[in-house]
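INFO batch 0412 | record 1 of 1 | parsing
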Amino acid sequence: MRSLFLLFVAACWTITLPAFAQTNNDCDQLRAEVDYLRNALKMQSNPVFTDVVMGVELKIVSVVGSKRTKTVQVNALFTSQRTDKSGSFYYYHYVLDPEGNEYKVGCCEPMALSSDIPRSMFLTFDNISPDIPMFRIMKLNIYVDGQQKVVEYRNVKIDWK
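INFO prediction complete | emitting tokens
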């Protein structure tokens, strides 16, 4: 009788074991999704600069320099707050360092904007000395549906890594 009971317990254990393994895999996928959403929320909630230009909210999320490659990458989020229509977005950017040197990023492909949906953009400025602690001026020439607006930020600190 006892061996029959142990056989029954062993059978139940082998039947339910794959279900636990699948649950752990689901937990890992859920953790990865939560981490992704947490990082996305952190990126949107802690911007370096925030501005609204022609119905488009602009958030400069980070300005990070690489000492190894001598580049600075600016991460920005754009969100259309206009409810009347969607639009397209163009930009042209340049920065000035404290010594007066100018670094440019040219025009890009137009970005389609939809209401309340953030779009991410990365700008990379090349050949920048790691000795430069900040940009004196960062100018953004923004074009939304054919209208132009210049946005200027001063003393933009660079987080060198």
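INFO post-check: The first strand starts at residue 49 and ends at 53.
INFO record closed
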